Amino acid sequence: VPSFRLTLAYDGTDFQGWQLQTRPGARTVQGVLEAALQKLSLGRPVRVHAAGRTDAGAHALGQVVGFLLEREFAQDGLLRAVNGLLPPDVRALRAEPVSSAFHPRRDAVSKHYRYSLDTGGVQLPQRRRFAGHVPFALDAARVRTAAGAFLGRHDFASLQTAGGSVQTTIRTVSRSEARFDDAALTFDVEADGFLRQMVRSMVGGLTAVGRGAWSVADLERALERRDRRAWPAPAEARGLTLVRVRYPGE
Amino acid sequence: VPSFRLTLAYDGTDFQGWQLQTRPGARTVQGVLEAALQKLSLGRPVRVHAAGRTDAGAHALGQVVGFLLEREFAQDGLLRAVNGLLPPDVRALRAEPVSSAFHPRRDAVSKHYRYSLDTGGVQLPQRRRFAGHVPFALDAARVRTAAGAFLGRHDFASLQTAGGSVQTTIRTVSRSEARFDDAALTFDVEADGFLRQMVRSMVGGLTAVGRGAWSVADLERALERRDRRAWPAPAEARGLTLVRVRYPGE
Asked: CB–CB of B126 and A83 under 8 A?
């Protein structure tokens, strides 16, 4: 059976997240993609696996998914056919044949997420789908230092929202950078894996440091406590984008 | 009677343009703004004048409007009150008291519009509200040269869509620059005034040059003919943003 890998971009604003839901009527990215692929697979249901199960309202520029189809496609033909069937808020950017052993999440070496946070008094309507908003300035130097505290191997239990079901809460962060432009913070983070709402929790912590509610040492101590209740609320989902998933040799 | 000036940003995607329409049910920026201001003016209807009447689907980062209210407001108080009443796709960025003689359109010295055009095979969903799209590469050097042909004082009758009712079609363009980043063209144009759909027509002409259908000389000749039928169709409204309006001394 032919096996494929697609790279997807989506505007998650009007989706209840990536993952199919039992609740009827919930519009999910997985749902609209599987419905499109079924039409390309002789009408047979297609099960899709994704590298990252993005939250409701979160976005992707480089989500990677894998699936089997009942018929062959040339790469360009599959790309065009899928985009012809998907709604405009989801686009396939690349299609490739892969080994049937490929699993987008298990095979991933690392994932890169980006969070955008507007900090001006009034958020531009042009930014409201793709950036969170806090109406106060953040201390840039403190936020940059605090971002560095996430680097390396840590137990991130303090940053995991209830509902995750992972065997270990230890992750290794290889990149954690905060940049400021005008009245906006951009936070780039790459790790071998992420716990549920981990990036949004990181931004919640950075915001606490940036507004002066926490020192950098407070953030480090709260991280070490491995207790969700020691950590501020996660930032809004709308600022979060899955930028890229890396696989061996890429 | 207190007179005010507001600077507005809006995502025009879900509006039938700036201007009030006689057709009932048409959602316009002027309509939602006047409805909000009426609540701040002792319930009396408020008439708003704008610097530029943006098309259906076009956007603003710096639209300027003027109006009279039946009661006084401090600047910050007015800003907060208006934003509390406007829908999230329109935001007031600045509020100032002005002379009652102020007229946003007649008093403007120049307007700056920006057009974004994506030229990759697939447009990112994140860009679909704020950029037009043509699925082919444009020749950057030729487009930059062609943009220069609009500079200076010209009769732009070839670029006016039917329905305009202006006394003269002569305008002076003080800035006309095309930049390319990745698979996107950004066109910045500033002039003492614009005809109906003039910027979108400019981009239609630049696209014809960029894809090779026209030479730069063809564009110049079509401009000199002062005939709408000599010019290509205007680019999509969704790529257009009114960036800034300049007034004497600003």
From this structure: no
